[in-house]
Amino acid sequence: MRRVCFVLRVRPDRLTEYRARHAAVWPDMLAALRAAGWHDYSLHLHTDGLLVGHFRTEDLAASLAAMERTEVNARWQAEMAPFFEGLDGRRPDEGFTVLEEIFDLDAQLDALDSTERASASTQELS
Prior knowledge:
By secondary structure, this protein is of the alpha+beta class.
């Protein structure tokens, strides 16, 4: 499952309201996200407006397309767009920047464990 991290910038004068909106996201929006294949989705907001989102999905393009087909997403994006800087007319789900993952602790530990197991097996055969 792919881990996706993205960034957006919330307008500083809208931070309090943005937090409040996410304290109780519409139930039909939550259901749509899950049905579209978004898992372990969280948002982190810095006091300067930097918003970092993270979720897991089997297929990013498919999960975004599935959300695009829902009516609730169109309503949510329209309501959320005024909270953000730099969208240049795009919706928030079209304007976020996906960050490249450059480190994964679990993957490196798994690779290390695998290498150590292979080394141990080779030593046992010697």
